[in-house]
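Hi R.,

Here's the chain you asked about this morning:
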Amino acid sequence: MADVFISYSRRDKDIVRRLYDALAAQKRDVWVDWEDIPPTAEWLKEVYAGIEAADTFICVLSPDSIASVICAREVEHAVTCKKRLIPIVVRDVDHTLVNLVKLDLFS
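And here is the predicted structure, written out as tokens:
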């Protein structure tokens, strides 16, 4: 079981690489889609399995991630699985566009 699943936009890959390296340096098992999905796998099933297996779900927030349908699906799946959610803002976002509030995460 992974300690952490990271959801992010591909445009934020450099930032996520640094986050991944920092977590790995702390001996955290991190699930990131660039290394954990076999090329022939049904990728969405693999992503959902990664979310289900992780203790914590990190959502890297940027204008690109909040515009991403895939990132939204990952967040929704994490909420459904009752995962601990940690949003990390890496670039300024319009808070009114962030769907975390709509998912009743703060109620």
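One quick note: Residues 13-25 form the longest helix (13 residues).

Cheers,
M.
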